[in-house]
Design a protein that fits this description.
alpha+beta, Helicase, Ruva Protein, domain 3, Tetrahydropterin Synthase, Chain A, 11 helices, 20% strand
Amino acid sequence: MAEITAAAVMALREKTGLPMMECKKALQECGGNTDEAVEWLRKQGIKTQSMRADRETSCGRLAVYSDPAKGVGTIIEFKCESPPVSGSQDFKDLANDIAKTLALGPGAATPDDLLAQKSTSNPTHTLGELKNELFNRMREVFELSRIKRIDGACGGYAHHDGSKAALIEITGNVSGPQAAEVAKDIAMHVVALAPQAIRKEDLDPVIVDKEREILSEAARKEGKPENIIAKMIEGRLRNFFSQCVLLEQPFVKDDKQTVGQLAKAAGLEVKSVENWKLGG
């Protein structure tokens, strides 16, 4: 058996990020050949990962990539087993790489399709290989559970802990100097206030009718005459809309204007909204 030096073990550890004893065993199994040891460790990691596939992945983070000028936006959900791993820089970097690859690559119909693609940040590896390498270092099961790509100008925002994120598709003056900033601000607003609809017309009519009924009954109990109740209700509905309709809500960073007014001033319209929370 070839002599395994401490320097060889340390070099393999630096290359793989795995514990010293595992690196030493790999070199012993491969007769001191570093390249073969890397492959041996990779296969051992895949084997271990398959044995742990049924472990719960209740933690993780959401990541977004957006650039109005490029005309594409993505949002993904990448899950793991524990909060410390979800907060690690390596996990964050891989989640962001996945979102970026989905945006700048050919697109993907499923998470597995995406994981088979070369990483945008590390094109010598597929995303799946990077995911397996991260498992080898952290020994937690990872799951790319949801992906979404919008082929259109977008703005995106993810909460600092990755638990909530939004992707906003915009139209209009998408190449304007304010487009990227305003689209991101609207996405942040969506994460903060979670509107039920973009426009009043998008709300479920059943919900609006129910609210109108509740407001009408309250007005009657106040002793208001029937001939003015209808006008009163329309006014009170505006308050209702300002609570649950995106374009009617006061902007979270400046409540003196609505989100609709903010978008209009930048020459933008909100076309669609993806508002995600970790775990669905």
